Amino acid sequence: MTKPSAQPNLTPQFCFSTVALRDFLRISRGAIDDTISQNLNALVTPAQSGFDPASTSVRIPRASSQPIDPRACQAFKDKVLFPSWQSRSDVLTYCAYVATSPDPDDPEVALRAVETERNRERVVDERLDPYSGRYFPREARTESLANLLRQERSVESIVRSRTWGLVRERCGDSFQDAEEALNKWRGERENRGT
To answer: FRET pair for 187, CA 20 to 30 Å: which of 39, 60, 61, 119?
Structure first.
């Protein structure tokens, strides 16, 4: 069985390193969600009824998939899928806190202050150049991080929806949406004290 993604060491530097943040999310999604069909196929017990030589004489389109043992499905969800989703949720939530907190270590604070001051001192004659009055200050890294997190949360929602659709189709046991299922798993985990 595939192992869930290990959660990285959460620090503000990890969040501000957009390459590290995106790599973690990409690798985690690639290991579980992007390969969900293969992961679910691995849960099917092969040849339960034995090989039937007559099955090769006529080509019959197979049903979309073989049924998966409900216990194997539940174990996959509890031990692989939901922990992976939880790990990504924890990272996105932590980084959202970082993005909304003041950033005393922002290396571009002084540069933005100088640019703003320079813009105030500038004399602009908009009759000569109507666009010269425009000023676009540099974006703070917390704002950039917040924008990235909005994008990644949207991607996460789409990925989870697609993954959960396949899990529901193959496991056939749950009619709740992905977030409801994850919240139920979180509640059960908290009740167990894990």
So the answer is: 39
Tokens 């000569």 sit at which residue? 128
Give residue 31's identity as a one-letter amino acid code.
Answer: A
47: number of Cβ within 10 Å: 8
Residue 38, amino acid: Q
Whether 36 contacts 166, CB under 8 Å: yes
> What tens-digit pLDDT sequence spans the chain (194 residues)?
666 667 788 888 898 889 999 999 999 999 888 888 888 888 876 655 565 666 666 665 555 556 788 888 889 999 999 999 999 999 999 999 988 887 767 666 556 566 666 666 666 656 666 666 565 566 777 888 999 999 999 999 999 999 999 998 888 766 688 888 888 888 988 888 75
Using CA atoms, how far residue 141 sits from 8, 14, 91, 146, in Å, is: 21, 13, 17, 8
Question: Interior CA angle at 185 toward 4 and 189, to 5°?
Answer: 85
Helices (H), 43-194: 70-76, 82-100, 109-121, 141-171, 178-192
